[in-house]
Request: fold
Amino acid sequence: MTQNADDCHERSLSYRDSGVDIELGQQLVEAIKPLARETSRPGVLHGIGGFGALFELPLDQYASPVLVSGTDGVGTKLKLASMLHRHDSIGIDLVAMCVNDILTAGAEPLFFMDYFATGKLDALIAEQVVRSIAEGCKLAGCALAGGETAEMPGMYQAGSYDLAGFAVGIVEKHRIINPELVQNGDAIIGLESSGPHSNGYSLIRKLIDETPVDLERPLEGLTIADRLMAPTRIYVKSILSLLERCNVTAIAHITGGGMIENIPRALPDGLCAEISRSAWRMPRLFQWIQQAGNIKTDEMLRTFNCGIGMVVCVQPDNVSAAMASLAESGEKPVALGRVVESDNCSFRITG
Reply:
């Protein structure tokens, strides 16, 4: 007597048995839809749920439009977020890292897409993360046009997840910000950061692991944990307003590598960013990091933004107007220095 193959097994395996819950993922998509609708802007053709995001370009507003794209993640700040059980602002970091990058070309962000990957989907955490992504999109004025949630058992440790983002913006071709615009004598203006943003957290976590750190210790009205988890500042509206009022010759997003590595990326050969160290005060959080880790100043400046999250260059006769525009937008602009001629360096600190 032969036995049916189906009878040889005590039970039938399902995708859920492998650790993937399709129904939970579908519930999350339904929860995300209203969040995405709140970020909608002209150009969005369909909501979340399709295989691809559709966006109609505002070609009637541009003579020669150029698309600018950027992709990034949040880095190991995610591990600190998981350790502290704080997932309600990390999505702002994700949006900020992408839109601030494309902003350096003078581009207005149009839409954003995210990728959320985890070993086992926790719907509550995922919704908090996506809700904060939507909040970041609102701050940037772009639409959350779609994304992907991937549940991959065995790829990630329990309770951990990873994030990636992708932003697309648009700029008129003749208004693209590029190094060719920068001239000797241009003024360098810094915009304050909200904290470390999303860079240097491997060093911060090493400091936490190796020294007796009380993250609940007060620091200027908040705790150290609050300061470390402050979301990356989104500069989109301030910079777009500035571009309408002033002749901006360069924009640099101060991310990994600090001012030392990022400002030179916006300059042509033969020109150097000369920054006065006395021009700004390193915020208390960075002072604490430096003291607690006995970190050299050069290492601090190469690892962290040290209080300056974005830098713009303007022609000397535009300085007053630029400072006023940025202040009106809620920024605290700092006159950092100037662009000078140099054949052997692209960045130096004086004073």
